[in-house]
């Protein structure tokens, strides 16, 4: 059944909101754990020259105010979550969410490990500042990485997923092939941090290309992924994001596959009518609009940068509206102009719905799907270079900190209940401002269409 929602009117009171968005550079400092060991919770801050710093990905100035200072209460929540996560690691290096049939099991050591959960935890550890070679949890990250690489390398030829394990919480709710999508995303993030001479770079790149091939082989004609789960639109969204990230790292991504994947996500939202297709989103608007936002973000940013440059060069008027004709006047072909304009309209309409109170409520309470949707919305705002990400960050981190368990974990209250998966996802949200440069790189124009 197709459910309809009308786009919420543009936010009022921008002056009041602007007053809330006081931003600074992120802080980096050691935190002393109970054992007396320093634990760095944040990646090194960017080097600032004057009022801007140069990103290695874009080669352009970025206003340092785009990066937020991490609030003390968030730093505390991050520390507790990270300590809980590393204690949840199994002897084989992996992490597990458990079986869909036994969602009541909350002990991470009482379930089988799976690649999807392991990839999410590995991404969280990396975003918190550890790498394979340095940081307080480099050893745990290395073990998780070896687990994932072995899973990819052991997969049968012709397979479209990297594990023989079936019926996990993550697969049942997101899709049977979610493991390969999330592992590809982690490997893209990993490769971005390894120099050409690193002993694991070639192995990681080969594994990434294997994952890309599986995702493309498992793609339906409409751009979605085979093996839908309860909220299969999220599996397809993460697969599309994985292809985008892999392409940014030079993986063998087919441009048509990436286009199909993006187009499928955009098709779930009608920007003109403000309606959302939720048939493959378990009837939950949040899941659909977060995917639409995430997979139109890079193209929306591309349009913005084209228009800004065309205005500087005098090709279009300073007050030119954003539409197909304006893009053509800026030198874009008709077909490209229509593609970019569609993405731009979808992004701007979907991001508003994805942050609306009545949509954020999702299924009525928080499961892993809600946490994933919050993460997609936040990352899309950064990728699009959207200053609105700061307001999203303040609201979302405040919500997460308020529902964190006393032991530092989070767990879902429906569907994906796994503490390991939900804690990793929540930690990725809290620490998103540690990863500004890497996320901006995913939206950089330089690799698109090349």
Work out the count of structural domains. 1
Helical proportion? 40-55%
Assign the CATH architecture.
Answer: Alpha/alpha barrel
Q: What class, by secondary structure content? A: mainly alpha
Most strands sheet: 2 strands, antiparallel
CATH topology: Glycosyltransferase
**Rg over C-alpha atoms, rounded to the nearest angstrom:** 21 Å
Instruction: Work out the oligomeric state of the chains in this entry.
Output: single chain
- Average of the residue pLDDT scores: 78
List the helices and strands in order: HEEEEHHHHHHHHEEHHHHHHHHH
Number of helices: 18
Name of the top-level CATH class:
Mainly Alpha
Secondary structure: number of strands = 6
Low-pLDDT stretches are 1-40, 43-60, 275-285, 446-450
Major sheet: order of its strands?
Answer: 1-2
Instruction: Using the alpha-carbon principal axes, give the shape.
Output: globular
| N-to-C CA distance | 39 Å
Percent range for β-strand residues: under 5%
Describe this structure in words.
The chain is mainly alpha-helical. It has a single domain (20-447), classed as Alpha/alpha barrel (Glycosyltransferase). 51% of the residues lie in helices and 4% in strands. The chain contains 18 helices and six strands. It has helices at 14-20, 72-87, 115-127, 138-154, 169-174, 178-193, 201-217, 232-248, 255-267, 285-294, 297-312, 324-329, 334-354, 357-360, 368-383, 389-402, 419-430, 436-442; strands at residues 30-32, 38-40, 52-54, 61-63, 269-270, 275-276. The protein has a two-stranded antiparallel ribbon with strand order 1-2. Strands 3-4 form a two-stranded antiparallel ribbon. Strand 3 (52-54) and strand 4 (61-63) form a beta hairpin. Helix 2 (72-87) packs antiparallel against helix 17 (419-430) and helix 3 (115-127) runs antiparallel to helix 4 (138-154). The longest helix has 21 residues, at 334-354. It is globular.
